Amino acid sequence: MIKKEQEMKSVIKQKMREGTGQVVVKSLMDEGTVSHSRLFAELVIEKGCSIGKHDHVNETEYYWITEGKGIVTEADGEKVVQKGDLVITGGGASHAIRNDEDETLKLMALIILE
């Protein structure tokens, strides 16, 4: 199966998870079509925008940074992430991510259900 980019739906989420600004979410696959997951998407976060703190109970979320730099907040503090890094959050842990840079932050997000 091949899914063409024009078949993928994008939505703009304002203050995603109580964050700041907006995040563009491009669903690579519609919810419910990838077994044992609830999200498979590209997220685009411009300067000054963020996804607020949220928990991952009974699931694990993977953020693979594909462009730019960001700041991830976890229980043990803030960490800089950049292209090529993989952020893994599960087991009831929480995280947030923001873009303080001039360059666009892009990431692939996948949430796997336990």
From TrEMBL:
Domain Cupin type-2: 44-109
A molecular function GO annotation: metal ion binding
Keywords linked to the UniProt accession: Metal-binding
Top-level taxon of the source organism: Bacteria
InterPro entries hit by this protein: Cupin_2, GPI/OXD, RmlC-like_jellyroll, RmlC_Cupin_sf
Pfam families, A to Z: Cupin_2 (PF07883)
Record's protein name: Cupin 2 conserved barrel domain protein
Natural source organism: Sphaerochaeta globosa (strain ATCC BAA-1886 / DSM 22777 / Buddy)
